From TrEMBL:
<dbReference type="InterPro" id="IPR003439">
    <property type="entry name" value="ABC_transporter-like_ATP-bd"/>
</dbReference>
<dbReference type="GO" id="GO:0005524">
    <property type="term" value="F:ATP binding"/>
</dbReference>
<protein>
    <submittedName>
        <fullName>ABC transporter ATP-binding protein</fullName>
    </submittedName>
</protein>
<dbReference type="InterPro" id="IPR027417">
    <property type="entry name" value="P-loop_NTPase"/>
</dbReference>
<dbReference type="GO" id="GO:0098796">
    <property type="term" value="C:membrane protein complex"/>
</dbReference>
<comment type="similarity">
    <text>Belongs to the ABC transporter superfamily.</text>
</comment>
<keyword id="KW-0067">ATP-binding</keyword>
<feature type="domain" description="ABC transporter">
    <location>
        <begin position="3"/>
        <end position="230"/>
    </location>
</feature>
<dbReference type="GO" id="GO:0022857">
    <property type="term" value="F:transmembrane transporter activity"/>
</dbReference>
<dbReference type="GO" id="GO:0016887">
    <property type="term" value="F:ATP hydrolysis activity"/>
</dbReference>
<keyword id="KW-0813">Transport</keyword>
<dbReference type="InterPro" id="IPR003593">
    <property type="entry name" value="AAA+_ATPase"/>
</dbReference>
<dbReference type="Pfam" id="PF00005">
    <property type="entry name" value="ABC_tran"/>
</dbReference>
<keyword id="KW-0547">Nucleotide-binding</keyword>
<dbReference type="InterPro" id="IPR017911">
    <property type="entry name" value="MacB-like_ATP-bd"/>
</dbReference>
């Protein structure tokens, strides 16, 4: 199994005022699949994503990804894992305002030994004509495309998306999800996507429902529908 999470727990706060965010979460995912994580605010969705991305450390349990047990890695090994293995896309784009679209993407391109072709990526994401613009000159959808390109140029094996459509209108959200679907199919990129929109689950191979920090339901789908068919 490409991703295997076993009995993961995570809490915040002090001993006398502790908030249990995840409790004994276990799941698996095959390589090249799309997994959607659903749940209400505070259910632990983003925390689970951050643990997979080694942005936070679990209190207990194991996370094994692509043959690597990241819960046993040193800080240096975790840094290499994030650099070489992962791409991140967040709800808020985190673009560098003083850099152009091309320059924002190149920041991550220089971090990897086997980047994707920049010109091809700009074309695929519809950014070629915007390459020399600054973030303030772009629409929200264009900024999110730039954020996606920045994550993808590293040629990551695993793409983590935290509410990537949350700040977008339905039309732009649909376009972004279609791009994610195309990326999954073209590059065989494994995608984890946190969302509050239940409609998005229809394009996923696996859906995990979180409630109060625990998985209460899991759905599998061998033939998910196309993203263009979603009613966002």
């Amino acid at each position: 199994m490409y991703i295997k999470i076993t009995d993961i727990s995570k809490s915040y706060g002090t001993k006398d005022n502790r908030n249990q965010v995840l409790s004994h979460v276990s799941m698996e995912l095959e390589e090249g699949k799309i997994c959607v994580i659903l749940g209400a605010s505070g259910s632990g969705k983003s925390t689970l994503l951050h643990l997979i991305g080694a942005l936070e450390t679990a209190d207990s349990g194991k996370i094994r990804i692509g043959g690597q047990e990241i819960t046993k890695m040193t800080e240096e090994e975790l840094s290499d894992y994030r650099r070489d293995f992962l791409g991140f896309v967040f709800q808020f784009y985190n673009l560098v305002p003083d850099l152009t679209v091309r320059e924002n993407i190149e920041v991550c391109r220089y971090l990897t030994k086997q980047p994707l072709d920049l010109e091809e990526l700009l074309k695929t994401l519809g950014l070629s004509e915007h390459r020399d613009k600054f973030p303030a000159q772009l629409s929200g959808g264009q900024q999110q495309r730039c954020s996606l390109a920045r994550a993808l140029v590293k040629n990551p094996k695993l793409l983590l998306c935290d509410e990537p459509t949350g700040a977008l209108d339905s039309k732009t959200a649909g376009e972004l999800l279609t791009l994610l679907e195309q990326i999954n199919q073209r590059y065989k990129t494994t995608i984890f996507m946190v969302t509050h929109n239940e409609e998005i689950r229809k394009m996923a191979h696996k859906t995990i429902y979180l409630k109060d920090g625990m998985i209460f339901r899991t759905e599998e789908c061998d033939q998910p529908i196309s993203a263009v068919q979603l009613c966002l």
